[in-house]
Amino acid sequence: MPIRTALGLVLLLMLQPPADTARDALNLGRTHDDALFDSFNRGYGLSVSGTIESAEIITEFRRAVLVVREHATQGDYVFDAQDLAGAMAPYKGLVTFIVQARLHPLNTFVKAPPYELYVSTGPSTDPVAARSMKRDPVYPVGAGPGSSMIGVRIEASFPIAPIAGAAKPTLILTDEHAEILWQTRLDLSRYR
């Protein structure tokens, strides 16, 4: 076998999730049992307090299930493990957090405020910065741009390795003045 072909095969195998994981994601994503699917998603919620309305984690496995679910709701039941591996390639080694925070009712923000998410790894180690971060304004039901925002939704993706190897990883949300609004301890071993 030529070396290029062997390297290509190794790369393809590295990008594909293990067969059991892919099979589990395909089965769970295609389930017609809404209670089971909702229960699965609730297990990825993080504890919230104060002005935080919701917080969740999206691991590689959960993302795979969500990708399959999206295809299944569109009637694409030929989406298989190989397709899933291709769809998951950009998310390899990443964990995503989504946090939605309420804003003060008298806020004057014209666009989503520059709230930040980062992961503190401990008192004597550097924090982990997000590889990508997206901030979206949240408007009241029935309203949209041009009306007053009631919240902000922050979605940030982080490399999983430094978080998993940290002594005391903590997810932290700061406001536009770098004041800590919320923090929660992370235990990635709890999630698949």
Q: Secondary-structure blueprint of this entry?
A:
Layout: H1 3-15, H2 19-29, H3 34-42, E1 52-58, H4 60-73, H5 81-88, E2 94-102, E3 116-120, E4 132-138, E5 151-159, H6 160-164, E6 170-174, E7 180-185
Antiparallel strand pairs: 1-2, 2-5, 3-6, 4-5, 6-7
Features:
192 residues; alpha+beta; Immunoglobulin-like; four-stranded antiparallel sheet; 7 strands
Strand composition percent: 25-35%
- Give the structural class: alpha+beta
What is the number of E strands?
7
Main sheet summary? 4 strands, antiparallel
Mind explaining what this structure looks like?
This protein is α+β, with helices and mostly antiparallel strands and 192 residues long. It has one domain: Sandwich (Immunoglobulin-like). 31% of the residues lie in helices and 25% in strands. The protein is built from six helices and seven strands; from the N terminus they run αααβααββββαββ. The strands form two sheets. Strands 1-2-5-4 form a four-stranded antiparallel beta sheet. β6 and β7 form a beta hairpin. α2 packs across α4. The radius of gyration is 19 Å and the shape is globular. The two termini are 36 Å apart. The N terminus is likely disordered.
